[in-house]
Amino acid sequence: MDSTPPPSSASPFDMVSSALGQYMPVHGPTAAAGSDDPQEDDAARRDVSDAPPPADQEQILGAVDLDRDLRITRWNLDAPVFAGIEAVAGGPFVGLLPPSDVPTVTRRLRQVLETGEPHVARVQRLRRSDGSELLVSMSILAAAAPHEGLTVSLIAMARRLHLYAAETAIGTSLDIGETAQSLAESLLAWGDVTAVDLDFAVWTGEAVTEQPQGRLRLRRAALVPDRAWPDGYVTPGDDLPADASRLLSQAIRRDDAAQAIVIPDREAIERVLGSPRLVRALAPGEQAAAVVCIPLVLDGKPPVVLGVAEVWRRADRPFADSELFDLQELVARTSHHVDLARQHQREHTQVLALQRRLLPRSGGDTIQTASVYQPATPDSAGVGGDWVNSFPLPDGRTALVVGDVVGHGLGAAATMGQLSMEARALLSAGLAPDEVLEHLDETVSLLDDVESGLAAGYSALGSTCCIAVYDPVSHHVEVASAGHLPPILVPPDGPAGPVAIRPHPGLGAEFALREPYDVHAFCAPPGSLLALYTDGLVEDPALSIDEGIDRLTDAVSSVHPWDALEQAAQRVVSAVAPRRRRDDVTLLIARMIGYRKEDTTTWRLAARGDAAARARTLVSELLGQWGTAEHTRDSVLLVVDELVANAVRFAGGPITVRLIRTGHGLLCEVGDTGNGRPRLGPGGLLDDAGRGLHVVHGLTTRWGVRWTDTGKVVWASVER
Fold first, then answer.
1. What are phi and psi of 599, to 5 degrees?
2. Pairing between β-strand 585-592 and β-strand 367-374 as defined by DSSP bridges
3. Tens digit of each residue's pLDDT (9 = 90 or more) over 611-633
4. Which of 707, 694, 615 minimizes the C-alpha distance to 655?
5. Which of 300, 501, 620, 663 has the highest count of CB atoms within 10 angstroms of its CB?
6. Is the peptide bond before 654 cis (omega within 30 degrees of 0)?
7. What are the tens digits of pLDDT across the range 142-172?
8. Distances, alpha carbon 330 to alpha carbons 161, 297, 312, in Å
9. CA–CA separation, 468 and 464 (whole Å)
10. Phi/psi at 394 (nearest 5 deg)?
C-alpha cells in the first residue's frame, strides 16, 4: 500500500483503507497509488502484508478506486467476506454488479463525478463468480486532489447492519419520491424486483385519515431495478388499476388490522389477481413467481395505512420466516420517514401554490414581462421567501416588484404573501414606491414584535424589496429599494448596467438605522429592458457580487428585441445562475413598450375660472381627430369639465390635463398642486358639495388619485 500521506492530502481510498485495518494488501497498478517512489511503495506494501490481523476483528470493509471512465485502478477487497468478488485492473466497475443494477449505479457514479457531492450508504448487491450475490452498503466519494476519479467504499452487510444502514439511507431525503425509492432499493436485498405503492393522499401530501376497508387508491411511487418494462406494467407515477388497489387493500387489511401477506407461487398470483390484465400490471415477468406485500402503517389510534411495499422473487427462492420478519421490521422502521416526506410534500405544495399565485400574469399593452422562479433544491424544506410580481395600476402605469423574505417554509411564505398583497394594494391606491416601502418596513417590524412574531419561531427582519413603477406616457421609471440589489437597465441605444440607487437597510431595521427611502427616476425609452432579481441569481462563491451583476448585465444585454421574453428569461437564468445554488433564484424581465406619441396629449392651464371651458375645447378637438364615438366624447368632456373645475375650486395651479388613448378606452388625468384627497360624499339632492365626483363616478369604469412631489393627479377611465 502507498505510504500514508499527511491527513490534509489523504485520498478517500487511503482513508477507507486505513479504516479497514492496515494489514489488508492492496491490488492494482502501482502507478495509481499516488507515490512517485517505487522503493517507498514496496516498503509500504511489505510492512502492510507482514502485519498480523487482529484475531477478534471481522473484516467487512473494502474499497475500490475508479478513474473518470469508471474503470478500476486499484482495490482493497481481500477480506474473506469479499471472496468471489473478482476486481480486475482496467475492468469496468459495473462488471461487479448484477446487470439490472448497471444503469442506476452508472448514473450515480457519473453524478458524483460531475457534482463532487458524495452518495452515501446505498444498499447494493455485488456478483460473486459462482453466481451468488453479496449485499453491501456502498458509498461513492470523489477522489481528493491531485487524484481524479472516484473511491467506492463497500461494507458487507450483516442483517442488523443492513437494517440500520437502510433506515439511515431512507431518512436522508424529504422528497416523497426519493424516500420511496430508497425504501425500494433497500428491500431489493430480499428479492429480484421491489415496488412501493402509496395511497394517493400520501403521494400528493394531503392529510391522511383512517380509510374505509378496500378504499385505498394506490399510485406507484418507486420501482427497482431501473429498466425497460413491458407494456401494461405499472411504473412510477402511474395509478394502479382500481381492481388491483381494492384487492391489495383488502388483502393487507384482513380482520381490520394491516398485516403482511405472502403469495407463494405463480398460480396463486394469477388466482388472486383474477385477470390477465392485472397480472400484466403487477407481476414483473414470468420469472417472478412469489411476492410478499407489507403495509406501510402510521402508528396511531386507529393506525393508518400509507401504502404497500412489494417484494417479488423467482420460484426457486421461497421466502423464509426470518426474511419475512426482517422485511416487516424494515418497513415498520421506515414508515414514519414516508409520513415525514408526506408532510413536507404538503407544505411544499402549499408554498408553491402561493408562489404561483404571486407570479405575474401579463404585462398589458404598454409593457411585456416574464419571470423565472427556481427553488434552491427540489427537495428543500419548503420553498423560499423569494417573490416577484408585476401588475397594471389603475391609472395606466405598471408596477414591478421583487422581494426576498428571510427563511424558507410556511413562515416565510406567509410573510411573503402578506408583503406582496400589501405592496399591491398600496401601489394601486396611488402611493409612491418609497411610501410603500415605509409601510412594508412597519409591517415587518410589527410581525416581529415579541408577542406576535418571535413567539411563532420565525423572524422576517432583514427582508429586502425593490419596487419599480413604469409610466408608459413619459417613459420614466421610478425605483425605490430596501436593502435589495439594483435593477439592471438595458436601453435600446446606450450602455447597459445596474441602476444607481442609494443603498438602504432591509425591512424592519433598527430605528437608529432607518432613513427616508430614496426614489430614483430614470428614462426607459421603448425597447428598453429592465431586470429585477434576487441575490440567489448572482451570488456565486467563486465570484464577487459585482462580477455576478456584471455577468447578469451581459446576459440581459444579449436578449434580442425580437426574442420571446419567456424563453429569453430562461436563457438568462441558465447562463448566470450558480451551478451549485445555495439560495432560490428569481428573475423578472420587463420590456418597455409605452404609448405612441399620437396616442397621448398633455396641456397646462392656469387655475382660472375659464380653465374648465378651455379644457373642454382642447379635448373636444383631439377627440374629433381620434374619431371617438359621440357617446364616449360626451362622457369624456363631462368628466374633464368636473375634474378641472374641482382643481380650480379646491387646489392651486397650474393645472395639467392629460388624455391617453388606451387599447380599451380613454384615460383622463387632471393634476394640480393641492394635497387634499377627493372623496365621495353622501350627495343629497340639494347638496352641491361633492356632486362633481358623483358625476365622474357614474360616467367612468374606475377613478382614483395618485400623489406626486408637487401635488396630486386625479385620473378616470372611460370605456370606448
1. -100, 5
2. antiparallel
3. 889 999 999 999 988 888 888 88
4. 615
5. 501
6. yes
7. 987 777 899 999 887 666 566 666 666 676 6
8. 12, 12, 16
9. 14
10. -60, -25
